[in-house]
Write a structure and sequence with these properties.
Two copies of one chain form a homodimer.
Chain A (H helix, E strand, L loop, with lengths): L5 H17 L5 H8 L5 H13 L3 E2 L8 E2 L1 H11 L7 H13 L4 H16 L2 E5 L2 E2 L4 E10 L2 E8 L4 E7 L6 H15 L4 H5 L7 H20 L4 E4 L1 H6 L6 H12 L1 H13 L6 E5 L11 E10 L3 E10 L4 H29 L1
Antiparallel strand pairs in A: 1-2, 3-8, 3-11, 4-11, 5-6, 6-7, 9-10, 10-11
Helix pairs in contact in A: 2-3, 6-13, 7-9
The structure holds a DNA duplex (30 and 30 nucleotides).
Chain lengths: ~350, ~350
DNA sequence: AATAGCACTCTCGCCTTGAGAGTGCTAATC
DNA sequence: GATTAGCACTCTCAAGGCGAGAGTGCTATT
């Protein structure tokens, strides 16, 4: 693979860049004219033939221009992965937006999704950060009506889950508050396992709620990601490869059925570290569902404590030059946010 | 308009039904053969010409079959609006699903969106119910880190809003709990106006939180709908009128930009009563944004107390026969759910 | 009033065709 | 030996032509 000459490299990158822009097969003549190369088209043709033999380019049909192959894209991406940075002006704009919206976690998530989609012109997805090992922080029980109560659980890291329960019999708000207060005292900072090891409570209500909390914590640990924020679905439809609405439908369905998406994220994040990007190109590694699409993924957060995933989805011909730096930058921002939360907690102790 | 003969009516309905099924212009011959009419195609042609003159049908081009005009669809809808009921088996399936998911409000909303989208094969949208005149019910203040606190406010009707605040200086959880307890005692059941009329609190923290609560209540009243749950976006892409991805993109963009959607819902619900359906066909009434699409909308809830909106969006050629009864039925179900919540609250007093 | 018949119109799919773009190869050139 | 000019060849794509088919409106007839 590294038998590529310098000239072949430049040529390959040029071809891919051009194809990403134009969505057209690129020919030797066009290449010479457009990029002021000091070579004749014949030479280019020879080189292109060589690159085609190596499997980096493809011809849609005899005597058409060349189109990058999956392999070609991968090479392209590997070349630019580690250098590309988002222009500073854009960085500023983005971080400014985040600064303005120093709202709650939900605000961050939607903002991140929106920024990713706009910058990369692809479909974005962001999962909320969730604690690797959830620690109990606080619970509130609020009577909403007769036997129904609202339970709000806060975990370390700022994760909040709310849930409506129906009790066997009505309970006064006062008693609920007492129960919550007792549990808050005795469970603070504990993990699921710690809680499981506690002796059974004498008060039946306390014990019931405790079980529910630990179930919720376990669930939060398992589900991995929970809600997925997305944006930019219609960007897909602007791409010529999705002019056929069948194609578009198939791809967008991925996003509508969140379960597939969660599965995908879960499996890919297994072998990825925070800070590192993962770029899935085409059906790479058994992801036939991706079809002719690509996915730029990154994890963010604080290793071992809390993390989430974010990424951009688009056609294989997506603008990696925009997507990759943007994903990396936004991942960095979100990591900082998570970090701040954690730091705040430590400090509070 | 009501100068239509019986025969013309049947014919019109037949034509529209056929067109909705096939997405093709329907001709006189096809009509005779397909529906075993005791008439010749020539007679049908005459009637069709008459209907075309009245503006209920259109010819895409000379000597093609007829296609319903917007006016035609409107007539069609007005005919079936008040009779159509969802088949009982389907009703059972749906209510069963709702029964199983007797989760929280969010569960209901997503379920409603999913049911609507599946049944009608269109794009669904559902807004959470929100109180016409929000009444304060409960507040919880939870310290999450240093100066940041999580405020969970519960309104009458079960509406919950959570929000992260940053205080000027760190406050202990204990003090927060006391503040919450005091506010809960003195604000219970009050409306925004009531709260505004209260004397200023001596405790600065109490007063700050009180202001935030009243701001939140006002906001909740204004924003009208808040989050909009949608489902079935890809159903649009299956329709032949959206084979051109431009068209699809334009229509789906409506759904991505929630603001337009909210605006639309807000304006249409102004003059609609709970229980009554509204069907917007094409650009009817200055809704050019709808283009060649239709919208079946309904409000649900309890008049004067809490209400939300739900609806189905699709091409003008959408299956009203499915959409209308489904929207009506689901609106009924959600109304019942809201009603139960309210009833539960009254009973609790 | 309903119908049969007929001439007419318009689209749509199919085919052909020519232009254009691009290739690969060979022979000439630096 | 690498590069280039030249050329014959291939393939797509858009445009035009053509015929079939579906459907209409009108008129004369039942």
């Amino acid at each position: 693979m590294s038998e590529l000459t310098e000239r072949q490299k430049t040529l390959l990158l040029l071809i891919i860049r051009d194809h990403i822009e134009t969505a057209q097969p690129v020919g030797s003549k066009r290449l010479v004219e457009h990029y002021h190369l000091d070579l004749s088209s014949a030479t280019i043709r020879n080189e292109m033939a060589a690159l085609t033999d190596m499997g980096l380019l493809r011809q849609p049909y005899t005597s058409a221009g060349r189109v990058p192959s999956e392999e070609g894209y991968r090479y392209f991406v590997s070349q630019m992965m580690y250098q590309a940075e988002l222009p500073e002006t854009i960085q500023k704009t983005i971080s400014h937006q985040f600064y303005q919206t120093r709202a709650d976690q939900e605000g961050w998530m939607t903002l991140a999704a929106s920024v990713l989609a706009n910058q990369s012109q692809g479909v974005s997805m962001v999962t909320a950060p969730h604690a690797t090992q959830a620690r109990f922080k606080h619970v509130e029980l609020i009577s909403t009506q007769g036997r129904q109560i609202l339970m709000v659980t806060v975990f370390g890291g700022g994760e909040v889950s709310q849930q409506i329960l129906t009790l066997a019999e009505p309970v006064t708000q006062e008693r609920l508050s007492q129960t919550a207060a007792r549990l808050n005292r005795s469970l603070a900072g504990l993990t699921v396992d710690d809680i499981a090891a506690l002796p059974i409570r004498t008060d039946a209500l306390d014990q019931d709620i405790l079980m529910l909390i630990s179930a919720e914590m376990r669930r939060s640990g398992e589900r991995g990601s929970g809600q997925i924020y997305t944006d930019g679905e219609t960007n897909l439809l602007a791409e010529p490869e999705f002019a056929e609405s069948d194609e578009a439908r198939r791809a967008l369905k991925l996003f509508e059925e969140r379960s597939t998406l969660q599965d995908l994220i879960a499996r890919t994040t297994l072998n990825s570290t925070i800070g590192g990007l993962q770029v899935l190109i085409g059906g790479e590694g058994g992801w036939e569902q991706l079809g002719q699409c690509s996915l730029v993924l990154a994890r963010y957060g604080v290793p071992g404590i809390a993390s989430g995933t974010l990424g951009v989805f688009g056609p294989m011909r997506m603008s990696y030059a925009k997507a990759i730096p943007t994903v990396r930058y936004v991942a960095g921002l979100l990591s900082d946010l998570v970090n701040d939360t954690i730091a705040g907690e430590r400090e509070a102790k």
